[in-house]
């Protein structure tokens, strides 16, 4: 027995306006809901994002974050597209610096945070580079173990 996730509900001040943002982000149409709007990502039958007007504005917003993953392209291209739509970058961090993989935390126009990871294409390329790498002799170079002198004027 188990559970299936069907809906992620997000409270906001203007569901229709925020729905337009998320529709562009997910490349999915906005549809009506009983007390908000639905956005069903393409290819998904079960999962949807449901935007409703805040029910208790005095209560702090949820700390839940959506995690999004570009199927192709590059993370930075996707971040540029999202910021052009109105998202704001909150934080950039490496998930694996040596492979060039990262995650960017953004906020939608109402301040709801979400994360975008390196694309599937970037991850596949990092795995390919790792599998093709000659791992013999990996480690610090002999000269890198010496101290480095830095002159400060």
In short:
By secondary structure, this protein is α/β, with parallel strands linked by helices. 24% of the residues lie in helices and 28% in strands.
Which parts are unreliable, with pLDDT below 50 for 5 consecutive residues or more? 137-153
Shape: globular
Order of helices and strands: EHEEEEHEEEH
Approximate strand percentage:
25-35%
Please report the number of helical segments: 3
* Number of E strands: 8
Helix content: 10-25%
Q: How are the strands ordered across the major sheet?
A: 1-4-3-2
Alpha carbon gyration radius: 21 Å
Largest sheet: 4 strands, mixed
Q: Helix/strand/pairing class, anyone? A: alpha/beta
Mean pLDDT: 80
> Distance between the terminal alpha carbons, to the nearest Å?
68 Å
Which short descriptors sum up this protein?
153 residues, alpha/beta, four-stranded mixed β-sheet, 3 helices, globular, disordered C terminus
If you had to describe this structure to a student in words, what would you say it looks like?
This protein is α/β, with parallel strands linked by helices and 153 residues long. The chain has helices at 15-26, 75-85, 120-132; strands at residues 7-12, 30-32, 36-39, 48-53, 66-68, 88-96, 101-107, 113-117. 24% of the residues lie in helices and 28% in strands. A 4-stranded mixed sheet has the order 1-4-3-2. A hairpin with an 8-residue loop joins strand 3 and strand 4.
Topology:
Blueprint: E1 7-12, H1 15-26, E2 30-32, E3 36-39, E4 48-53, E5 66-68, H2 75-85, E6 88-96, E7 101-107, E8 113-117, H3 120-132
Parallel strand pairs: 1-4, 5-8
Antiparallel strand pairs: 2-3, 3-4, 6-7, 7-8
